[in-house]
Amino acid sequence: MRNGNRWLPVLFWTLISFLTLFPIYWLFVISVKPAVELFSTPSVILTDIYWQNYLDVLGDRTLRGYMVNSLVISTGNAVLCTLLGFMACYALSRFDLPGKESIFFWTITNRMAPPAVFLLPLFLLLTQVYRIGEFSLADTRTGMILVYCTFNLPFAIWTLRPTLDGIPKELDEAAYVDGASAWKVISEVVFPLARPGLAVTLILTWVFAWNEYLLAATLTNFNARTLTTGLSEYVTTTGTEWGIMAAISVFTLIPALIIFSLVQRHIVAGLTFGAVKG
Amino acid sequence: MHSKTLGWALLAPTLILLFFFGVVPFIYVLFVSFHQWNPFAVNPDMIFNWAENYRRVVFDAQFLASLGVTIAFVFFAVVSELIIGYALAQAFMRDFPGKAFFRTIHTLPLIMAPIIVGSIWKLMTTPSIGILPNILDDWFGYNLNIGQSALQAFTVTVIMDIWHWTPLVTLSLIAALVSLPPDPFEQAQIDGANKRQIFWHITLPMIRPAIIATVFIRLMDALRTVDEVLMLTGGGPGSATRYVGVHIFKEVFPRTNYGYGSAISVVVLYLTIVACWLLYVSLIAPRNTRKG
Questions:
Q1: Phi then psi for B30, rounded to 5 degrees?
Q2: Would an 8 Å CB–CB cutoff place A20 in contact with chain B?
Q3: CB-based contact (8 Å) between B62 and chain A?
Q4: Closest approach of A248 to chain B, Cα-based (Å)
Q5: 20 to 30 A from A245, CA-CA: which of A87, B149, B210, B227?
C-alpha cells in the first residue's frame, strides 16, 4: 500500500532483533568467562572462550542428576499428557456423551488457575494424603509427572481437539462397518492421521514441563529436583557463582532452542493458545 | 453410534487425574482455610476457627501491599505490551527483505523458561557484572542498582515482562490484521479519512475480538508471574516486587501456618476469577448487548 523505503523496515527490525538477542548473547558471554574476569569492566566482545563453567556443571554429580530428572519428568509427562489428551479428545469428538462440552470446558479451566495458589494444597496432599504406607508421591519423579498434568493435560486437550474434530468421522465408521475393532480403528485409522497434531502437542508439553520451576521448587527436595531448581540454588545472597549460573541457564535453554529452530512454524499457533493460525 | 462405555473409558484417565490433582487440591485448600492448623506448633491438631483466617487476610498489610504492586505490575506490563505489540504487528504488515527471519527472532523469547529469562535479566542488571548498570553509568552517569531502588526494580521487572511477552501480542495481532478485509479501508481512503480516523473507527473495532483475547491471555499470565521475578529480585528490595505469587512462595509457603496460607491462596484465586470476570463484563458483554 505505502511506498516507503524497502530498507527502512530492515533497519528497524535489525534494531528490534538486537534488543531481543542481546540479553541472550550476554548470558553466553558470562557463561564463557572465568570468575576473575567478570568483575573487571564488562566487555561485550569475546576475546577467548573459557569452557570451564560448562565442564564444572557437567562434572557436578548433583547437577547431572537434576538434568536426568528434568529429562525423565518432561519426557514422561509429555508422553502421558499427549496420550491421555488423544484418548480424551477421541472420546469428545466421536461419542455422544452427555455434558461433554462442559467437560471439555472444565478441563481447560484447570490450566487457568495460578499455580502459586495450589502450592500449599499440593504440597500437603503429596506429603500427607496421597500415600500408601511408606510410599508417598512427594519428591518422586512419578509425583512430578502427575502434578505437571494439571497444566499440560488441559493444554494437550485444547490443542488436540481441533485435530481430532478435523479427521472425518466417515473414515472410522467405514472401518467399523468392515468389522474392525475399536482398538484397530484408533491405532490404524485415527492415530496416523492425527500424527502431526500429536507431534506438536508432544513437543510443546515437553517444553512446558522442562521449563517449569515453581512446582518443582516446592514439591521436591532432593530425589526429583530438576535443572531449573538447580539454577535457583546457585543464586545466594552471598557470592553467587555467576559463571556456573549462566552455564546452567544455557543448558536449560538449549533443548528449547533446538526444538524452536526445528519446528518454529508449527509451534507458534500452540504457543499463542490458538490465537494465531500459522 | 458405538457404545458410550468406550467413550467414558477413554475419558476416564483424564478425569481421574484432573480430579485428584485439580479438584481435590481446590476442595482441600478451601477446607484447610477454615481451620487453625500448624503441625509443628504445641497443638498440632486442626481446629475449626470459622473465618478467622480470612479476617486476618483482609487486614494483612503485607498481603495488601503485595496486591497493590501486582496490580501496578500487571497494568504497566500489559498496557505496554499491547501498544508495542500493535506497533510491531503493523510494522510487519508490509513486505521487506528478511521478514520471515526477523519474525522468527522476534518469537524466540516465547519458548524460553521464565526462570531463564529471570536469570538473563539478573546477569544484565546486577551491578559490577551486568552490562546495563555499567553503560548507564558511563554514558549518562545514571546509577542503576535494582537491589537498592524500589522503583528501578519494579521498572526492570516490567521491562523484563515486555521483553518476554510482547512477541505473543505481536503474533496474535498480526493474525488479526492479516485476516481483515481490505474493502472498508479502501472505502475510507476514498472518502478522505485520515490515518487516525481509520485507526479509531475501522481498524480498532475490527480487531477488537483479537485484542480482547490477547489481553485475556496476557492478564492471566501476568497475574501469576513468579519464576522470573523470584530469580531477578527475589521480591525485593523490601517488598517492591513481591507480587502475589512471589508473596505466597516466599512468605506464606515457608511458614507452617497452613490454615492462614490456605486462606491467602483462596483469596488470590478468588481475585483472579474476579479480575477475569470484570474484564469479561467490561469488554465482551457491552458488545453483545449492543448487538442484541
A1: -65, -45
A2: yes
A3: no
A4: 9
A5: B149
Q: Measured between CA atoms, how close is A275 to chain B, in angstroms?
A: 6
Is the Cβ of B121 closer than 8 Å to some Cβ of chain A? Answer: yes
Q: Do A91 and B8 touch (CB under 8 A)?
A: yes
> Is A6–B96 a contact, with Cβ atoms under 8 angstroms apart?
yes
Q: How far is the C-alpha of B241 from the C-alpha of A122, rounded, in Å?
A: 25
Give the CA count within 13 Å in the CB-facing half-sphere of B273: 10
Judge whether B236 lies within some domain. Answer: yes
**Which residues in chain B are closer than 8 Å to A242, comparing Cβ atoms?**
123, 126, 129
Give B140-189 as a DSSP string: I-----TTT-HHHHHHHHHHHHHHHHHHHHHHHHHHHHHTS-SHHHHHHH
Q: The domain containing residue B230 runs over which residues?
A: 60-254
- Of A188, A92, A78, A93, the C-alpha closest to B11 is A92
Q: Specify the DSSP element, H or E, that contains A29.
A: helix A7-31
Digit-by-digit pLDDT tens for chain B (292 residues) are 467 888 999 999 999 999 999 899 999 999 989 988 887 777 778 888 888 889 988 898 999 999 999 999 999 999 999 999 999 999 988 888 888 889 888 988 988 999 999 999 999 998 888 888 888 888 888 888 888 899 999 999 999 999 999 999 998 898 888 888 888 888 888 888 888 888 888 888 888 888 888 888 888 888 889 999 999 988 888 888 999 889 888 878 888 788 888 899 899 889 888 887 887 777 666 655 544 3
Within chain B, residue ranges assigned H as helices are 4-18, 24-32, 52-58, 61-91, 99-107, 114-125, 131-135, 150-178, 183-190, 195-198, 204-223, 227-232, 244-247, 258-279, 285-291
Q: How many domains does chain B have?
A: 1
How close are the terminal C-alpha atoms of chain B, in Å? 37
Taking the Cβ of residue B96 and every Cβ of chain A, the question of whether any pair is shorter than 8 Å is answered with: yes
- Assigned CATH topology for domain A61-225+256-271: MetI-like fold (1.10.3720)
Contact state of B11 with A92 under an 8 Å Cβ cutoff: yes
Asked if residue B147 belongs to a domain, the reply is: yes
- The angle at the Cα of B249, spanning B71 to B150, to the nearest 5 degrees, equals 50
| A contacts of B213 (beta carbons < 8 Å) | 275
Q: Which of A 35-64 lie inside 8 A of B, CB atoms?
A: 38-39, 41-42, 44
Angle between helices B24-32 and B258-279 (to 10 degrees): 120
Q: Domain of B111: which CATH number?
A: 1.10.3720.10
B210 touches chain A (CB under 8 A): yes
